[in-house]
Each structure stands twice: as C-alpha cells, then as structure tokens.
Amino acid sequence: MTFIIQLKEDLKKLARLASSLTEAHTCAILLPTEVFEAASHTAASRHISPDLSPSLASSHPGPPGTHAEPSVSRSIELVAVHSISPSLSRDCRIQVGTGLLGWVAQHSRPIHVAPFDLDSGTLGLYSDLEPLKSLVAVPIPMPTETADGRGGGPGPTGVLMCDSRKAYSFTKPQIKVLEDIALQVSRLLFWAIFKREATSVESSWESFRLKLHQLGDAIGAESAEILRVSVETFSQVEQQHGLSAAVHQSEQFVRLAQQALPPHFPLARLPNGDILIALDNMMSSFFQHKLRTLANHVSTESRPFSIAVLSYPTRPLRGHSIDLDLVLQQRPVAVKSSSKSLPAKVIGGNSRA
Questions:
Q1: Distance, CA of 333 to CA of 249 (rounded, Å)
Q2: DSSP string, 252-304
Q3: pLDDT score, position 2
Q4: Phi-psi bin for 41: left (phi > 0), alpha (psi -120 to 50), beta?
Q5: Does the N-terminal peptide bond of residue 64 adopt cis geometry, omega within 30 degrees of 0?
Q6: What CA–CA distance (Å, rounded) separates 1 from 124?
Q7: Helix-strand-coil percent breakdown of the chain, rounded to 5?
Q8: Staple partner for 274: which of 77, 84, 88, 270, CB 3.0–4.6 Å?
C-alpha cells in the first residue's frame, strides 16, 4: 500500500536523523503492532481488541527483573531503522514487558544503560552478538485526538532506541533530542493516520463497514443509525459552472462534514456521490441539523447547494450484528424537517427521541 510505504519512509528519515545526532550504532523505531494493522486494514472484518491473551511480563514499575506476573499481552514491531550492523533483524516483534525495550513500551518511561553489560541478544533486534557499550530508549506516545503529544491513554507506547559501540554515556542534550524526535513521530502518526481526509484509505468501503460494526458493538446494534446524504444540485451547478465547480463544492461539503463528526462516527462516499454516515441515533437529529447548516454554508447565490438526507435505523435488527445491505433496503422513517429555510430535505430522524 502506497500510504504505508510512504509513512514508513518518513519514519526511516527520522531514525536516520536521530542516529546522526547521537552518533548511534543503531537507531530503531518500534510501534505497537495494532498501529499499522489498523492503518492498512489488512483484516477489515476483524475487530482489533485490546483484550488479548495473557502472558508473562514485568508487573512492577522498576527496571526489568526476574519476577514476572501475568499481564495483557501486546507487542511492538520494528517499523523503521538506521543501522550499520549486518546482524540486525529487520522483521522483528517484541512482547510488551519483555526485555528493556518491552519495559519502556509497557511503562512509558525512558531508560539509559551505560555501561551496557548485557547480551545484545536480549534486545530482540540482533541475530548475532554485538559489542554494545551503551543504550538509550525513550517512549513514543501514541497519538490522541488532542494532538498534544502527551500520551495515548491505556496500552503500550512506541519506543525510539539508540545504541552505541563506544564506551561513553549518551549526554542529556542527546537524550532531549531523542525525546523531541519521539514526539515528532507521534505527531506524524496523528496527522497521517488519525486525521486523514474522507477520501483517504481510512474511509474506504471496507473500513466503513468495519467501523460500523465497532460502533454497533460499543452502543448496541439497535442504537445505531445510518444517514444517506445525496447532493441534489450537483447537475445544476455542473451545467451552469462546469464539472470542476460542482466537484469542488461537493468535496468542500464532505470535508466539513468529516470535520464535524466524532472519530467513532464513520463516513464513506459512494461512487455515485452519495455519503453514508453511521452514528448513534440519539445524535441523529443534532447531526441532521448540522449537515443542513453545512449545506447552507457551502451554498451561494450563484451556486446553490442542497442535500437530501435519508435516515435508516438499525432497530429492526435487534439482537443481530448490523447487516448494512439489509439496513439500506428498509424504508426510511419519515419525519418533517425542523428547518424549512435551510436548503435540505430530510427523511428520518432520532429513533430514540
């Protein structure tokens, strides 16, 4: 996938920068496995759950010791690296809580080991022994909707690691630089994955279906609702101002609608230009009004813009997972629009109001 390849190339540049600034033997960026699984949607029909199988990991807040207790099993994987070592394993995963790097991922705390007197094989990155003399690893906070780089809530963080064959400690300014680069990695992930446009891979049809099922699991299948939005004035604008103007106006509306929706309410644009939005039916009236307001904002005197909204409740499918095809084959529930002045037609509404 081009998007994933480009993202990893950007991460490799940051790893190269970190290596250059610290004169490291190896600089590696490891991220929670779920990050790229979610981004690439390699298993769109599988819900990625944080409740994974238990395993052995360090359970106390100090450095890794000999005592281990059961904890949640997750892993971090190598996604970008800059190294002069021929024995580096380019495809590796490390269990969270295992070893030095797994400890950083689990506790979101940096470590600095100098002199490094452990077997390099314990890092999980090398296939042969390396005469390492020092190592530093800092956590990479997983991005949140605030984009402030202050961590990603529960679950493991990523790890930025640099090691050296030289018998010296990494300096405080070097460690501060690594922490700054780790923050840049977090922000890159935020803008690249969590804030992509509605026309990106994240809004593909399979992604929409996956997020719809996740929404149904979270609030109950009977509490979800589908809005189908069609642009009524597209042909009129195309005839009067050209296809480019009509496309630009529609895309502007889609961008505004995407920005207005919470991240757990997915949006998808169909090949015929219609827009599907999945949401909690308690919020349906609010967002129908919001969509009408956005349509009014996009509309101008010379280029009118009006929409029609069809509302499809999933309530008749109580007790079952949401079948999107069956939902859209239902007859929408008709209600009167609460705002006649706005250029929109609305069918459907709050099925729990």
A1: 29
A2: HHHHHHHHHS-TTS-EEE-TTS-EEEEEEGGGHHHHHHHHHHHHHHH--SSS-
A3: 61
A4: left
A5: no
A6: 27
A7: 40, 20, 40
A8: 270
C-beta atoms surrounding 88 within 10 Å = 19
Instruction: Report which DSSP code applies to 340.
Output: T
pLDDT at 51: 33
Strand 344-347 and strand 307-313: the pairing is parallel
Say whether 71 sits in a helix, a strand or coil: strand
pLDDT for residue 338: 38
Using CA atoms, how far apart are residues 43 and 192, in angstroms rounded to an integer?
A: 20
Would you say the pTM of this structure is higher than 0.90? Answer: no
pLDDT at 6: 81
Alpha helix locations (H) across 2-51?
2-22, 33-40
SS3 category, 228: strand
**207, 267 Cβ separation under 8 angstroms:** no
Residue 230: the pLDDT is 94
* Ranges of the chain whose pLDDT falls below 50: 1, 41-73, 145-153, 197-203, 335-353
pLDDT at residue number 333: 66
**Residues 70 and 54: beta-carbon distance below 8 Å:** yes
Q: Are 33 and 24 in contact (CB under 8 A)?
A: no
